[in-house]
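Lecture notes, unit on protein representations.

Consider one protein chain, 356 amino acids long.
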Amino acid sequence: MITRFHDEYDYMIRLAACAVRRLAPAELPDGLSFDAVYRAAMEHDMAALCFCSVEKLTVLPDRPLCEKWFDRRGLALVREVNQAVAADEIRGVFAGNSVPFSEYQGTRLKELYPSPDLRTMSDVDFKLDSRDLNTASSLLEELGYSVHTEENGSTVVARREPDLNVELHGRFFPSDPAYEKAFVSSGLTGTPALYLFTLLHLAKHYRSGGCGVRRFLDIYLLETSFPEVRGTPEVRRALKEAGEDALADTVSLISEYWFGDGERDPSFDGIAGYVKRSGTHGSYDNLIANRIAESGGKARYFFRRAFPARKALANTYPALSDHPARYPVYCAKRLIAKRKTGISELKVIKEKKTKK
């Protein structure tokens, strides 16, 4: 567990660790402010969890901030109740209409926390057979949700006012074929499947826009609640097949240091710093930087953006499959459609260059 606090993120992590382990929290160290710690907790969507430790401190934040922090806990509790009721309603409707489903995200991970409202989530996720997505979408519409599809039709995004968001997934990792293949071919079910999915989901975000501290806490709680799961041969084999076995080991070590009794390894400071700066769902700056690195430089990155693989382009423009000679035309159409995104990416790169 972190004992020396270099910044507000270190102290936030210590507060979260004490909350899940039901330990007495360390007092705010000199040189840090509760305002900065609160902002860090908000960035990582852990304010409600951290408040469980804050309220036990001898020296509390000033009254306005304490009330604001208390309100975050109250909002998390209200959201939990609303999401739990909605999830039960949807489970009942799916079961009543013979639509099989499974759950691999927040609704399962909540069970590992001292109280389910302390593991907040932005939406309720269900995994379905892709052939059932249309039926499931219609059922959600009957429940008052507005729905639309994303990721080439493999994901249904639904919303019901005032603040209920649901996602139906026809595939586990729509944009990551290697992860999808590794997970499905593992044949895992139950807790080992949940653990593998959570690791690969973390890796997906880590390698795109970045992932936050909370995902590391999820891993820590899975590994401490089910210590045998980490060494499951099928899990190790699937992680290696996905190319993420080394990252998974690093995540475990950092998680144990942050929340358990592990020791700090200075070689992981770069990764830990990246995670702290990423916030809950990463940042656009990280996304562009990672894509440029993967492409081998800015020139290659923008070339691939301008001229994507024919198969990938056909996902957006199906007519290309029947008329391959029109590839340049569809590339031009895509550039026009994505011009705002391209301008944003150029701004990010220019700003990063200016800061150097």
